[in-house]
Write a structure and sequence with these properties.
It holds the Pfam family HAD_2. InterPro entries: HAD-like_sf, HAD-SF_hydro_IA, HAD_2, HAD_sf, PGP-like_dom2. This protein is of the alpha/beta class. Helix content is 46%, strand content 11%. A six-stranded parallel beta sheet has the order 3-2-1-4-5-6, with helices on one face. α1 crosses α4 (70-88). The longest helix is centred in the middle third of the chain and has 19 residues, at 70-88. It starts with 8 loop residues before the first strand and ends with a helix.
């Protein structure tokens, strides 16, 4: 098991990890799909967790067929999600602010590597008042290949001049853990709406209950 004394960079996923937005996302996708007489099951939605919009499109088009009105449903989903966030605010995961303050105080580099597109990620980070903590943010519409491909993590580490072995990746999704492992980084999982399979769990450095636990680990 690797030690954490030499860690320089902590890379955060966003949805489901920092913010409790996967539940909102599922509700919005399901409601938007229902408008067009399609049923978005929880199992189908779970397959899209941790992927960018391009990969989500591929998954849904493959499942529903070529007549699936992806762009119309996606646009409706955005409206519904925004209405929920504007009404209720950004739901913050337990320990987020405490962990960010701890990392800042101890001079760790911090980054966000999210499958969410730039506009939405920027809005959520600002609404939650955490955007100024991060040295770099890379989004799903700024990479060619979606998680579980390691591209997004490799680009973040290169941008911040950190070798993979000195990077922790905190993720809630199996796709994210696979990407972190393939990037040669230290994968830590805090499951959200989906517990990891035994195969994924075998890849983890640790599985934690919440972000506060990482403070003690470091």
């Amino acid at each position: 098991m690797r030690k954490l004394e030499d860690i320089e960079l902590v890379i955060f996923d966003m949805d489901g990890l920092m913010f409790d937005t996967e539940v909102i996302s599922y509700k919005a996708w399901a409601k938007a799909a229902d408008y067009y007489n399609y049923h978005m099951s929880k199992e189908l939605f779970n397959r899209t967790i941790g992927t960018n919009l391009t990969r989500t499109r591929e998954i849904l088009m493959e499942y529903f067929g070529e007549n699936f009105p992806f762009d119309l449903i996606k646009s409706e989903r955005v409206i519904i999600s925004n209405e929920i966030v504007n009404t209720d605010g950004v739901p913050i995961k337990k320990g987020l602010y405490e962990l960010l303050e701890h990392l800042k105080k101890n001079k760790f580099k911090m980054a966000v590597a999210t499958s969410t597109n730039r506009n939405r990620a920027t809005d959520l980070l600002k609404l939650a008042k955490v955007d100024n903590y991060f040295d770099y943010v890379l989004c799903g519409d700024e990479v060619e290949r979606s998680k579980p491909d390691p591209e997004i993590f490799i680009k973040v580490s290169k941008r911040l001049d950190c070798i993979a072995q000195r990077c922790i990746v905190i993720e809630d999704s199996e796709n994210g853990i696979l990407a972190a492992k393939r990037a040669g980084m230290i994968p830590i999982m805090i499951p959200d709406i989906q517990q990891p399979s035994l195969e994924i769990e075998s890849l983890l450095f640790r599985k934690l209950e919440n972000l506060n636990e990482l403070i003690n680990l470091l």
